[in-house]
Amino acid sequence: MVVDTSTPAQSFSKLTPRERDVMHYVALGKPNKLIAAELGVSQRTVEAHRARVFQKLSVRNAVELVRTVMQSGEAPPLSQQYQDTEQSGAR
């Protein structure tokens, strides 16, 4: 087993732009099907990007990903849809 000793900032720099997009959607809690529709790719492509993000950042699941993203300051901005929902008070 290979242990990644790089810092989170170094790990984030290893991500491709598309992997970073997928990472942000996952961190927002979006399901693969919605991510695929938003990015105009297949669900299988999203699954592949997601797996590579988890591998490159040395996380095992979405919860660890969110924790890593939040601790690193790489947190994505709130989606416009979420912001609109929060402002209207609906959930």
TrEMBL record:
<keyword id="KW-0805">Transcription regulation</keyword>
<dbReference type="Pfam" id="PF00196">
    <property type="entry name" value="GerE"/>
</dbReference>
<protein>
    <submittedName>
        <fullName>Helix-turn-helix transcriptional regulator</fullName>
    </submittedName>
</protein>
<dbReference type="InterPro" id="IPR036388">
    <property type="entry name" value="WH-like_DNA-bd_sf"/>
</dbReference>
<feature type="compositionally biased region" description="Polar residues">
    <location>
        <begin position="78"/>
        <end position="91"/>
    </location>
</feature>
<keyword id="KW-0238">DNA-binding</keyword>
<feature type="region of interest" description="Disordered">
    <location>
        <begin position="70"/>
        <end position="91"/>
    </location>
</feature>
<dbReference type="InterPro" id="IPR000792">
    <property type="entry name" value="Tscrpt_reg_LuxR_C"/>
</dbReference>
<dbReference type="InterPro" id="IPR016032">
    <property type="entry name" value="Sig_transdc_resp-reg_C-effctor"/>
</dbReference>
<feature type="domain" description="HTH luxR-type">
    <location>
        <begin position="8"/>
        <end position="73"/>
    </location>
</feature>
<keyword id="KW-0804">Transcription</keyword>
